Amino acid sequence: MSDPVFDAVDMNGDGMLSWKEFYAFIQPLGVSEVDARHAFEMIDENKDGKLSRKELAKANAHYYFDATPSKYMHFYGVLDLDDIIQAKRTMSKEAFIRAKLKRVFAMKDQNGNGKVELDDILIWGRKAAQISNIDFTPELEAKWTKVYDSYFPHGVGQDIEKWMDNVVSFSKLPNAVDITQDMSDPVFDAVDVNGDGMLSWKEFYAFIQPLGVSEVDARHAFEMIDENKDGKLSRKELAKANAHYYFDATPSKYMHFYGVLDLDDLTEKQFDPSDLCLSPPKPVLMLMRALNRFLPSFLQKKTSAILLPNDPIELYTVPFNTCPYSARAMIALIELDIPFHKIEVPFKLPDKSGKSYPPAWYYDLNPRGKTPTLRLPAHDNKIVYESSIVTHFLCDYSSTMENKDAHLLPTDPFDKSKMALLNDHADNTLIPSIFTYLMGKEKDNNSLRDKMEEGFSIFEKALEESGGPYLLGDQFTLADVHLVPFMYRMDVALKHFKNYEVNKEKFPKLLDWYETCRKRNSVYRAEFTSGAIIENFRHFIEIDYDFGGLVDKSSE
């Protein structure tokens, strides 16, 4: 790997690097003369005052691949190990949020099955009522049901990782704390048992004690939340503290909302000296990335973790990834093993005019105001949007990561053309026919259903020709990625609103394909609950939404 470096730096071509040549190489990277001299003497093993090709290569390789501290870690200047350890002990912002979330999730998992379901929240509510010496009435049960819907909408508590992903994504919004304070309203209503619009110490402790919080810790939390020190908690005070607990990315007083949180315990869990990573300075990364193409392919793969950008791609989507177009992007990211953060944009649901608006700041990322959008921090924050463009971009991008094990594009040109035709058919024929049938009036049901099934027949035929299990055969490709998010939504929504199920006798291969796709980890992670789909589409049906022009209203 160092040969191109050596050849570029050996100015006089004598096959050795003098101190002057070495310093000319390393100084532009910001290395001081003192540090450079230290590095030169460390690399010069035979102490002849010059560096051979072998000496440079050995030291450079050790710098990149030594998993534990050694003298070679000073190749690009003296590296302070204490600084690195301290940096590792400092939790990343995301790790800090996740640590808090895991803690509170475990508290609310009352039956200990690794999930937070409605039953867990109702157990919590019954315990709170018992502590308060009141009956757990149907009215109170309804209030605690709203608590569950507020904290774990659409049943997301079934999967802690998915729930944490959602909260972390939301925490990245610049105004996350402000726009989520009403999340605590159902809690306040359930806990304010005397209905005076304030929470007494007794009411607050009855709320938090069932989660395993000691009286001492609960008292500390109460006094922290009570900002005006009047001995009671207002709705606003509770909401503010609760929102800060969930979304603060750095330690603050609010981290003690659910009892005193020992930061040392959290950081210890996050730090393992064996995970010490001696990353090269950014200028060195830039140089080495440029030289990476000279490496044999098997070495390129080994160095990719060091040489490739560490900043993950940002995927902007709607809350809980309900948008099928965004689901395409998420499936592709997971399939291609590309690191990413999911950021949920708080879109307003369409009104009766059919317009749906993202917040104003989102138009700076995507002038069309739609999802998905990708932002690439490691590449000058470049932006990519529109789902079909995004998925093709990700395939190209993954090739730069030397990720040879993951492909979503067929290599055969005929298969590529088939994929393009299937995707065109999905976008321009099948998907519009699905939404048109869903939104159609009763008198149009048969004709609209028949038109939709004509769309299914194209994919049934493709599966017959390819032999399955996927649309192009053995390989899961963008043809599958393109269609499966819509099939999932159709499956749930049409069963509920139209009492329609895809005919097993007419479309056996299509249904087998659908079940096969749903077993893939990427597809599962990009799905959301059937209850959320039904509620979304219920709203769309009520306002006679046209899905941005997808619904053909000419038959009305």
UniProtKB/TrEMBL annotation:
Segments forming domain EF-hand: 31-66, 96-131, 213-248
Pfam families linked to this entry: EF-hand_5, GST_C, GST_N_2
Family matches, as Gene3D superfamilies: 1.20.1050.10, EF-hand (1.10.238.10), Glutaredoxin (3.40.30.10)
Segments forming domain GST N-terminal: 311-402
GST C-terminal domain location: 412-540
Top-level division of the source organism's lineage: Eukaryota
Name of the protein in its database record: Glutathione S-transferase
UniProt KW Calcium keyword: yes
CC terms in the record's Gene Ontology section: cytoplasm
Matching SUPFAM superfamilies: EF-hand, GST C-terminal domain-like, Thioredoxin-like
Gene Ontology MF: a single term: calcium ion binding
Glycoprotein in keyword set: no
Assigned keywords, A-Z: Calcium
UniProt-listed CDD domains: GST_C_family (cd00299), GST_N_family (cd00570)
